[in-house]
Design goal:
Rossmann fold
């Protein structure tokens, strides 16, 4: 399965426009389709929004020779994203956050709300990255749904010829060691079959958010993938209280949030 369509919602704020520019950079030299979406409160605002989107699309076409398809919807911002994802069969949503300081366009809780209503994963950036994805960090665990996170990471790696850096917690219990080794063997075989370069890295301590972020910074990651196992709640191995810290991390590394429940029927071979 290929990465074919990216959706970028905007409210025309500086940070959301930065996310749009990030997406433009991501699709350069690829066949990926880019959709730019704005949501208005009433029908009399539609034409004005279309004009603004058209002007931006014309500029991108002139500067980057890249086509942008525009979408304007009337309704609620949160639910409209999920609706459009289904309509265009989007593989990825790119959004932005201001970070921990100041007013935020997307807080961690809002990001999880959008994720819960979207069948596509959401890539959340802080407007700091202007380059293509070359290094992707994937923390591994024993959840069977974690395969979906690996699938989407492989999909992006294939699109951008990127490397995947696996991070695994080292186990001491003999039963867990055996289980972990079997899982790792399957994962490495899976990556090799998809011709994706990878590194395998072990962490002696629990992989909490701080250790994950420090590792991602060390390998100069352009993207971190995390899972959401329960609707509306970010859990994985870090805990709900660390949700904001991961999304608005101090290193400004973009974070890809994958909703296990919503993506199980569409992600097959990333």
């Amino acid at each position: 399965m290929r990465l074919e369509r990216i959706l970028v919602p905007t409210d025309f704020s500086e940070i959301s426009l930065a996310a749009f520019q990030d997406a433009v950079q991501l699709i350069k030299h690829t066949q990926i389709e880019l959709y730019h979406m704005h949501v208005v409160d009433s029908h009399d605002q539609v034409n004005r929004a279309k004009i603004k989107l058209d002007l931006m699309a014309e500029k991108v076409l002139k500067e980057h020779k890249t086509q942008v398809k525009n979408i304007v919807r009337v309704g609620d911002f949160m639910t409209s994203i999920g609706d459009v994802v289904c309509e265009i069969n989007s593989d990825l949503v790119v959004m932005a956050t201001h970070g921990m300081a100041g007013l935020q366009w997307i807080t961690g809780s809002n990001a999880m709300r959008i994720l819960g209503s979207s069948r596509a994963p959401i890539l959340i950036s802080q407007g700091a990255k202007k380059n293509s994805v070359k290094h992707i960090v994937v923390p591994l665990d024993f959840h069977s749904e974690s395969r979906q996170k690996l699938d989407i990471a492989i999909k992006i790696a294939s699109a951008y010829n990127a490397s995947i850096h696996l991070l695994v917690q080292r186990e001491e219990d003999s039963l867990l060691v055996d289980k972990m080794n079997k899982m790792i063997k399957q994962v490495l075989s899976y990556l090799s079959n998809h011709k994706v370069e990878y590194t395998l890295n072990y962490e002696d301590n629990t992989i909490n958010s701080d250790r994950l972020l420090d590792f991602a910074h060390k390998v100069k990651a352009d993207l971190i993938t995390i899972m959401n196992y329960h609707e509306g709640v970010y859990t994985e191995m870090f805990g709900r209280s660390r949700e904001q810290e991961i999304i608005t991390n101090k290193y400004k590394i973009p974070v890809l949030c994958v909703n296990a429940k919503q993506t199980s029927n569409i992600i097959t071979a990333y």
